[in-house]
Known about the structure:
P-loop_NTPase, alpha/beta, binds guanosine-5'-triphosphate, 16 helices, single chain, globular, GTPase_ArgK, seven-stranded parallel sheet, 15% strand, 420 residues
Amino acid sequence: MNIPMLLQSPHQHFLKGLLRTPFRRYHFVFHPRPHLSSGIPCAQPLSSPGLHCAKWMLPSNGLPRKLCLQTALEGHTEGLSDKEQRLVDKLYAGLIQGQRACLAEAITLVESTHSRKKELAQVLLQKVLAHHREQEKLNKGKPLAFRVGLSGPPGAGKSTFIEYFGKMLTERGHKLSVLAVDPSSCTSGGSLLGDKTRMTELSRDMKAYIRPSPTRGTLGGVTRTTNEAILLCEGGGYDIILVETVGVGQSEFAVADMVDMFILLLPPAGGDELQGIKRGIVEMADLVAITKSDGDLIVPARRIQAEYVSALKLLRRRSGVWKPKVIRISARSGEGITEMWDKMKEFREVMLVSGELAAKRQKQQKVWMWSLIQENVVEHFRTHPAVREQIPLLEERVLSGGLSPGLAADLLLKAFKSRH
Ligand SMILES: Nc1nc2c(ncn2[C@@H]2O[C@H](COP(=O)(O)OP(=O)(O)OP(=O)(O)O)[C@@H](O)[C@H]2O)c(=O)[nH]1
């Protein structure tokens, strides 16, 4: 689904546009205050923000709103060719039976930039979500999987930790999936994370699935593909999803918005080595683990632990029921790792019982939806014929100081609006 046209009203109060699903087009008017929108949110919430835009759709034929949503969803499946339908059915069946090859193929589908494949991916996701909802109902409404974000600077010991921790979890009967979000893959073509040689034993473990997640060059890309890969892994029966990032960029902020718990791994080094770590990332952590706490490194690890305990006291708490903790671990000696898992389970339990986990997941759905909208709208703006040819010229004039950025933006927006 994409939004090929979007207009802002002269009073800047509402957005109206044309929303195109793969097979139909709809007009919609969306106002920040729902009662002023042409479509109010439908009673049945959609779980995939990829289809959330449909909540505000008002078809030009004036169908009742619930029907309109239904029609849009049906539109997604009705138009599949036999071959496409067979592919979606095969992937879905294989995925929920836990076949890794089908999971891998399904993730490749959601990562595709090909527009038709993206549509097929949405059909598949919708089926997986319906299955997921059923399973969650059977689980008395409790989430089926624990989503954990794991970040740390290069060399912090992430892969050594995941190898040790992952083996421990699979031995305890869990199914673990590791999604490595690699911001470097889009700029350098190289891969810092997700390289299977980093976790040799775990990658041979049939209860673990390791997957690098290319970012398609944008933060929105991280959000879409990683969120959708999480859902597919959950559909495949993985009950612990680890999303790994290198803590030096922006992607961990996106990742923190898609997981239940965010963990920061820090090496026992101070000053310069931790310069790359952004303060904001520490603020997002529910748990900070100082790695390599063994041998000669125990003393510096204790020092860093004490520093972070004090630093965290000064930060604003993000949860009403959980105080971020700082622990020491060693993936070499195994020290602290069982205790770390206990803390993680404690976090999940506390968040679940208090209702904060459910609220957090709901909020994340909204963040996800808006980041998809933003990505699509900006892309549409940039490629719009009235704007595209003017961008290089105006950028040049802004760079040379001949035009203020504000005026340049106004001119582009004006050109964009005038063509609708
Ligand atoms: N002493 C000790 N060394 C460790 C431990 N964990 C990792 N190391 C060492 O630290 C170095 C970096 O470990 P990695 O696990 O590759 O770190 P990483 O964070 O995955 O690094 P990138 O792949 O660069 O992101 C390696 O030489 C490891 O052997 C530990 O628990 N104790």
